[in-house]
Structures are given as structure tokens and as C-alpha cells.
């Protein structure tokens, strides 16, 4: 068990585990899995766990728009209607309205801010966000040749293209509980961008959204390829062997694994 490894080594193993969930996962179903993982991670019963998945079509609303120094409404208007098969869910993450669905890769890093690495800064949420943005930029540059990938002040996420007309390719919105990160990131790979026109995604015009396939083609923008590139970039500098071991499993299988994890008495 993970707790026994800690006691024997005296330190936390550096390598996180990566789980790639099959099929389309409901937003609330993924939230249940995240919450269970957060509780276990806070107790040091499991290592950091990064989830890769695709959601069934859903529009979510976070805690509110990012502060830009200019007073504005906390939330943008909700969509006037939802297409058949699209859900609406409230979320604990930062940010406002966004869309998730097939072809978009969602990444949920269940990570403890314990100071063990640059990606786990000690109790520093801002540093975690900046480190994640840099990680995305490195993946896009090194693995896909998109050297224009960058960040923007007061606009958490990752942007590409010309400085005068930047396009948003990845969104980041997290929550923190007991100094464990949950919720996370979404990168548009091969998904249809039309659903973003139902909303003002995190306060921006829907036209700013772009996807990886429009920059490198749909074949190179595959989910499996991006998962591998992201996981190995995560491990660089943390492990002697940065080759990532990605476990592919269903949501039910993931929940069964969580249920088998050791739980401390009285928790």
C-alpha cells in the first residue's frame, strides 16, 4: 500500500500515476471520482493522480470570472437553450462558463501542494497555475512545433497565434481542498468549436477558441499522443526515467480501485 511505502522510504515517491478513462464520462460522475481521490491524497494514502478523460457534452459554470482590474459582472449570461444531449452543471472551479465534450481532452490533476517539485509548490496556488501553463506551452512547442504558445495576464490558460489576434487552445480552472488540487484543464484537440458559441467562454468571445487539429492536423492531434506528451513532460525533471506509464481503464474500474485503497480508521 502507498502508506506503507511512505513509512518504509520516509519520503513520498516522486512519480504520479496517470489514468486514462475510456468512453465519455459524465461531469458529475467525474466529480465523484475526483472527490474520492482528493480525500485519499490529503491523507497520503495515494500518490498524485492525473486523470485524462473526455466528457459527455456539458456546459459548466465556475465560481466566477477572473479579476482583471476592471469591475465587471461575476458571471456571463447562461445559454438561452441547451442542445439535445447537453447538460448544465455548476462547478467548484475558478472561471465562468465553458463547454466540455467529445474530442476535447480534460485533464484533472489530483495533486498535493506539498513543495515536492516545481509542479507541487508548497501551498502556492498561483505558482501551481503558472507551472501548469508553462507545462502546456512546453508540450505544444516541443511535441507539436507550436512556438507561439504563451500565457496572457489576467487570462489563465494557454494561447497561440499572432500577438494581435491570440487564440485560446487550453483552459485552466481549478479548485483546492485540504491543499489538494482538483478540477483542472481542458485542451481542444479535434472537437467541434460550435458549442462555444452558445456562451461567452470564461468571458471571451467564442471566436477566440481554437483547437490543436487546426494547427497540426487531426492525425497528430490524437488524444493518445497528447496524453503521452503531457505525461512525459510532467515527469521531466522529477524522475530518472520520464517515460510515462498511463493506465487505461473505465470509470467503474477507477472507482473500484479507489474503493480498494486503504482508508485510515475514523475517516
What's the layout of helices and strands?
Layout: H1 2-9, E1 17-25, H2 27-42, E2 49-55, E3 58-64, E4 87-90, E5 95-100, E6 104-112, H3 125-144, E7 150-152, E8 155-160, E9 167-177, E10 180-188, H4 213-216, H5 223-235, E11 246-249, H6 251-260
Parallel strand pairs: 1-2, 1-11, 3-4
Antiparallel strand pairs: 2-6, 3-5, 6-10, 7-8, 8-9, 9-10
CATH homologous group name: Bira Bifunctional Protein, Domain 2
Radius of gyration: 18 Å
CATH-defined topology? BirA Bifunctional Protein, domain 2
**CATH class descriptor name:** Alpha Beta
**End-to-end CA span:** 17 Å
From the spread of the alpha carbons, the general shape counts as: globular
Helix percent band: 25-40%
Q: What structural class should be given to the helix and strand makeup?
A: alpha/beta
Q: How many strands?
A: 11
What does the model show?
27% of the residues lie in helices and 28% in strands. With 267 residues, it is an alpha/beta fold. The chain has a single domain (13-65, 81-260), classed as Bira Bifunctional Protein, Domain 2 (BirA Bifunctional Protein, domain 2). The strands form 2 sheets. It has an 8-stranded mixed β-sheet. The protein has a 3-stranded mixed β-sheet with strand order 4-3-5, with no helix packed on it. α2 runs parallel beside α6 and α3 packs across α5 (223-235). Mean pLDDT is 88; it is low at 3-10.
Amino acid at each position: 500500500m502507498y502508506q506503507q511505502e511512505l513509512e518504509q522510504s520516509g519520503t513520498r515517491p516522486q512519480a504520479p500515476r496517470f489514468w486514462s478513462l475510456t468512453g465519455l464520462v459524465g461531469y458529475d460522475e467525474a466529480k465523484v471520482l475526483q472527490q474520492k481521490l482528493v480525500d485519499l491524497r490529503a491523507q497520503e494514502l495515494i500518490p498524485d493522480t492525473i486523470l485524462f478523460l473526455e466528457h459527455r457534452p456539458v456546459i459548466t459554470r465556475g465560481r466566477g470570472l477572473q479579476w482583471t482590474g476592471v469591475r465587471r459582472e461575476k458571471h456571463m449570461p447562461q445559454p438561452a437553450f441547451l442542445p439535445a444531449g447537453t447538460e448544465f452543471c455548476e462547478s467548484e472551479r475558478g472561471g465562468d462558463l465553458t463547454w466540455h465534450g467529445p474530442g476535447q481532452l480534460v485533464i484533472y490533476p489530483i495533486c498535493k501542494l506539498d513543495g515536492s517539485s516545481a509542479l507541487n509548490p508548497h501551498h502556492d496556488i498561483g505558482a501551481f497555475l503558472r507551472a501548469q501553463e508553462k507545462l502546456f506551452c512546453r508540450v505544444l512547442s516541443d511535441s507539436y512545433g507550436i512556438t507561439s504558445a504563451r500565457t496572457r495576464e489576467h487570462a489563465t490558460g494557454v494561447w497561440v497565434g499572432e500577438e494581435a489576434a491570440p487564440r485560446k487552445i487550453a483552459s485552466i480552472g481549478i479548485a483546492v481542498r485540504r491543499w489538494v488540487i482538483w478540477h483542472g484543464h481542458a485542451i481542444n484537440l479535434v472537437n467541434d468549436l460550435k458549442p462555444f458559441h452558445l456562451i461567452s467562454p470564461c468571458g471571451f468571445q467564442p471566436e477566440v477558441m481554437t483547437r490543436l487539429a487546426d494547427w497540426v492536423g487531426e492525425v497528430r492531434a490524437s488524444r493518445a499522443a497528447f496524453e503521452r506528451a503531457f505525461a512525459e513532460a510532467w515527469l521531466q525533471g522529477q524522475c530518472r526515467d520520464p517515460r510515462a506509464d498511463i493506465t487505461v481503464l473505465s470509470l467503474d474500474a477507477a472507482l473500484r480501485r479507489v474503493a480498494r485503497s486503504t482508508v485510515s480508521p475514523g475517516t
